[in-house]
Specification:
This protein is α+β, with helices and mostly antiparallel strands and about 190 residues long. The protein folds into two domains: about 1-45; about 50-165, Tumour Suppressor Smad4 (Sandwich). Helix content is about 30%, strand content about 25%. The protein has three helices and eleven strands. It has a six-stranded antiparallel beta sheet, with no helix packed on it. A five-stranded mixed beta sheet has the order 4-3-5-6-9. The longest helix has about 45 residues, at about 5-45. The radius of gyration is 30 Å and the shape is elongated. It starts with a helix and ends in a 13-residue tail after the last helix.
Amino acid sequence: MKDEWYTVIALGMRYWFALLGVLIVWRAFHWLRRDRREKHRRLRQLPDAGMVGEFVSLNDAGDMTVDDTLPVPREGVLGRLYSCDVPVLSPGVAKDHLDFVFEDGLGLRVRPRHGQTCRINGEELTRRDAAERGVLVHGDVLQVGEAALRLRLFSGLKFRRPARKAPTEERKAKAPKAAPGKGGERG
């Protein structure tokens, strides 16, 4: 091959490789756009996309009646205002009452805001002790103000039930013990 032909072909291939690079980048962005469109179309078709469960009202309190449901997102704020992620229009609920986040493998962690309290399965929870006991799992009852809400988590979510004392164990622990050598002991 003559040197002149090689030079002409090399100059032409420079533009060919530049064009191929532009085509590869354009095709990659085209795939990303198509995948994004498909993902959003699928999410629009799912009614509970982004939700981990729902709260079911157990009593009539304020604007809520028995068996009303409130969808629960993966994280957010529960409060009295409509701008909250989970609005609970019930007496005793503050504007921004508590924060919550779903933690995989654990459950729905709740943390009352400053000066607020709530109850999980009858046990009072404040901001101070929320790190240890502020976890809800499927079937637990959250009481905020006058509203009692049972958490129903969707199937497929992984969580574990935290160790809590059974009510009978608490009563046994609080009961006074018999004095040694009196009454019911056998020797």
